[in-house]
Amino acid sequence: VHGPGADLDTLCIGPSYVNREEDFFYTLHGILACVDEVTELQPIPDAHVPVMKFKFDGISIDLLYASISCLIVPEVSEIFFIF
């Protein structure tokens, strides 16, 4: 976050069996709604690029979801080698 009005674009990576609508926009939304630091939680599943927008401790976050063709998501240091 660099300046006023800026947001933080983030990506949640999940395995192939995770359903974006049910697991990301329903289950994760429910979890985030219970976090005190999360405000203005707004799922936008029908957007051209589906996103969940919220503020975490006052910082604007855009959270996107991507599924990869794996049953287990590898460590971050290994994830770029699967493509």
Features:
alpha+beta; Beta Polymerase, domain 2; globular; about 80 residues; 4 strands; 2 helices
Mean pLDDT: 88
How many structural units, i.e. domains?
A: 1
Classify the fold: give the CATH topology.
Beta Polymerase, domain 2
Rg, alpha carbons: 14 Å
By helix and strand content, what is the structural category?
alpha+beta
Give the biggest beta sheet. 4 strands, mixed
H/E order of the elements? EHEEEH
According to DSSP, the number of beta strands is 4
Main CATH class:
Alpha Beta
| End-to-end separation | 28 Å
Report the sheet-strand fraction: 35-45%
- What is the overall silhouette? globular
Specify the helix fraction band.
10-25%
Alpha plus pi helix count? 2
The CATH superfamily name is: Beta Polymerase, domain 2
Note poorly predicted spans: none
Q: How would you write the strand order of the largest sheet?
A: 1-4-3-2
* CATH architectural type: 2-Layer Sandwich
GO cellular component, one term: nucleus
Protein name: Poly(A) polymerase-like protein
GO molecular function: poly(A) RNA polymerase activity
InterPro entries: NT_sf, PolA_pol_NTPase
Task: Walk me through this protein's architecture.
The protein has one domain: Beta Polymerase, domain 2, CATH 3.30.460.10. The N and C termini lie far apart (28 Å). The protein is built from 2 helices and 4 strands, in the order βαβββα. Strand 3 and strand 4 form a beta hairpin. A 4-stranded mixed β-sheet has the order 1-4-3-2, covered by helices on one side. The chain is of the alpha+beta class. The longest helix has 14 residues, at 20-33. The chain has helices at residues 20-33, 76-79, and strands spanning 7-14, 38-44, 51-56, 59-67. Residues 1-75 form the Poly(A) polymerase nucleotidyltransferase domain. It comes from Trifolium medium. This is Poly(A) polymerase-like protein. InterPro entries: NT_sf (IPR043519), PolA_pol_NTPase (IPR048840). Pfam families: PAP_NTPase.
